Amino acid sequence: MPETDVDLLIRAAREAGQIATRYSGRDARRWDKPDGAGPVTEADLAVNAMLAQMLPAARPGYGWLSEETEDTAARLDHDRVFIIDPIDGTRSFAEGSRTWAHALAVADRGVVTAAAVYLPQRDLLFSASAGGGAFLNGAPIRVSAPAHLAQAHILAARPNLQPEHWTGGQVPAFHRDYRPSLAYRLALVAQGRFDGMLTLRPSWEWDIAAGELILREAGGLCTDRSGAALRFNNPKPRLDGVIAGGHTVHRGLFGALDPASAGIAAH
């Protein structure tokens, strides 16, 4: 039987973990990207090189979008495209933390259909395929369902709680937590360990694509900050923030945001 896209991504994610864990985060060579785009390490580049060889070879008709590959318009000519973050949470990796992930996805005409998020140093492998459910290390996962937003634990960076983002300057009552990897945040919400995830700053597709499907297949809702469904493989591969969680939590967060704040980016 031919290998499915999700099985291919799982195999690739595990191989990526074997490469990345050969490097010591604090000792890995590190550079700062131009224009304040953040750091990159030799581990990011080594993982990207492997994935850029392995995945297109397995699916020669798919396009390619990766944080560590110079983007071209060629991917727009493909219905299906790989969307890859070789290491999501590079700062965390470089600091020696274990909360970084490999985030791999396939999108078909803008909709993610297969995904894997792997944290090799925590032995956590989240996966999903369209219509096939979401899994952690092979076991099904499901979003939580708190009765009220006030009971919810939301993964969000502190700037998202600035009053200017919220209607009337009133930040809703919820418990705030944080993890550095956006893909891991989405996966944790899919697992039900946290109730929601929020980022109001423009977000790169490779940070979001894999986690979006995993959360959606776990019964959650994932939109941009205006409430629109997320679409991928855009000419400019950025999304207008992300609101994610079970339906009650998503409705509570979206309803409390000030629509007029859409042009204000949280950092």
Written description of the protein model:
The chain is of the alpha+beta class and 267 residues long. The protein has 2 domains: 5-140, Fructose-1,6-Bisphosphatase, Chain A, domain 1, CATH 3.30.540.10; 149-263, D-Maltodextrin-Binding Protein, domain 2. The protein has 6 helices and 16 strands. The strands form 4 sheets. Strands 3-4-5-6-7-8-9 form a 7-stranded mixed β-sheet. It has a 5-stranded mixed β-sheet with strand order 11-10-12-16-14, sandwiched between helices. A hairpin with a 4-residue loop joins strand 6 (111-119) and strand 7 (124-129). Helix 4 packs parallel to helix 5 (205-217).
Tell me the layout of helices and strands:
Elements: H1 5-20, E1 30-32, E2 39-41, H2 42-58, E3 63-66, E4 80-88, H3 90-94, E5 101-108, E6 111-119, E7 124-129, E8 133-136, E9 139-140, E10 153-155, E11 175-177, H4 182-191, E12 196-199, E13 203-204, H5 205-217, E14 221-223, E15 238-239, E16 242-245, H6 247-256
Parallel strand pairs: 3-4, 10-11, 10-12
Antiparallel strand pairs: 1-2, 4-5, 5-6, 6-7, 7-8, 8-9, 12-16, 13-15, 14-16
Helix pairs in contact: 1-2, 4-5
